[in-house]
Amino acid sequence: MRVSIDANVCIGAGQCALTSPDVFTQDDDGFGTVVPGREDGTGTLVREAARACPVQAITLHDLSDEPRG
Fold first, then answer.
1. Domain 4Fe-4S ferredoxin-type spans what residues (predicted)?
2. What is the mean pLDDT of the chain?
């Protein structure tokens, strides 16, 4: 799985960082970001953090669904 946050949608609620701090953090402006090196989405409660986002800024990509090149 690959995880990303749409910076244009994020409102900085912080639910991702509270729910799964090993994968998500907040930048200096308070907006959600993925912890560097954790883009693979391995960590605790990643799916729950995506569900907790009030504006659905978090996307979880199932790598088995992506085309291989």
1. 1-29
2. 93
The token pair at 8 is 């244009």
What is the rounded CA–CA span in Å between residue 66 and residue 56? 21
Per the structure block, which two tokens stand in for 45? 């409660």
Stretch 25-32: mean pLDDT: 97
- How confident is residue 65, by pLDDT bands cut at 50, 70 and 90? low
How is residue 7 written in tokens? Answer: 């910076």
CA distances (Å), 7 to each of 11, 21, 29, 68, in order?
8, 18, 12, 26
At 16 the three-state DSSP class reads: helix
Work out the end-to-end distance of the chain between its first and last CA atoms, rounded to an integer number of angstroms: 17
Q: Tokens for 61, please give them.
A: 């990509």
